[in-house]
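Last lecture ended with a question: if I hand you only a sequence, what can you say about the shape of the protein? Today we answer it with a concrete record. The protein is Phenylalanine--tRNA ligase alpha subunit. Below, first the input exactly as provided, then the predicted structure, then a couple of comments.
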Amino acid sequence: MKEELKKITKELQDQLEKVADISALNNFEKKYLGKKGELMLLLKKIGNLPETERKEIGQLANEIKTEIKRKLIETKEKLGGNIGAADKFFDATLPGTKIESGHLHPLTLVQRDLEKIFSSMGFMILDGPELESDYYNFEALNIPKSHPARDMQDTFYIEHKNKQGEYDMVMRTHTSNVQVRAMEKYGAPLRGVALGKIYRNEATDQRHEHTFYQIEGLMVDKDISIAHLMAVLREMFKRLFDQSANIRLRPGFFSFVEPGVEVEMSCLLCEGKGCPVCKRTGWVEMLGAGLVHPNVLRAGGIDPKKYSGFAFGTGIERLAMMKYGIDDIRLFNSGDLSFLSQFDS
Ligand code: DAH
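The predicted structure:
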């Protein structure tokens, strides 16, 4: 029996090699593997063998059958025949194909973090227009007509003039435009943050974009001082960056606050030791802030004798760059998937 099996295997293999087209292959299949095929008839005989031989021969026969079937499918595929899904080898242990799905942009992630942090401290999420009047973007914020910030260099003016023939509409240059709008709408006391897109007529480089995002914070109440500002900012940094940071203030000038300050944070990357990101100083400039100027409170209909407030503003890109260790602001709008896919959570 063993000999017979070996013989037919050899014959089958020789025959299969000679098969040159699909119809010859079909004939081959019928002749040997069909119900009354030669191999099948031989296999049937195994049942009649004595118990002792049956096991060994049966196993051998099965191996031969599997091997021939595999070769048959291989030849069929080679000849361009259709092989059914059931014939194909399927390895259930292979890892599946990953389905690519979209995910949030890093700036959206940081925006959402900030909204969560400030909402939990009782701040409203404020909104304001990107196409803004000269009044809310500058005038109401105590930025006089002659102020350099109004220079055509920095501001995108819109082709629209008032009765005096002056350009009176701009693409907002900062989210501070929301300050007086919020005061008019909600009065004091008031706690809010505004996040959104702003525009600057500026050349682009590693640290500058002409269109970017800012967050503006405003808190007006009785006896608000710089201490409140520092406490709120400390909490923001701690929760945004998942670690405590030191804060220090330097005097800074912004028309809409008095006193105005530049807020610096101890560098998270080198923990204050000094590295290229903090220009070896251990400190990074993070935002502009101060106590709301009495003129601005008055413009918002709030009595500066009764109320005081703090305000702050900064670029969301700057926060995201610090949080994720990104060294070029242009990456955010590059559409570069190798950059963006790192934020797939
Ligand atoms: N608006 C400023 C800018 O665009 C940032 C800023 C500075 C906002 C001081 C403030 C502030 O609210 O008090 O650079």
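Comments.
1. The longest helix spans residues 51-78.
2. The mean pLDDT is 89.
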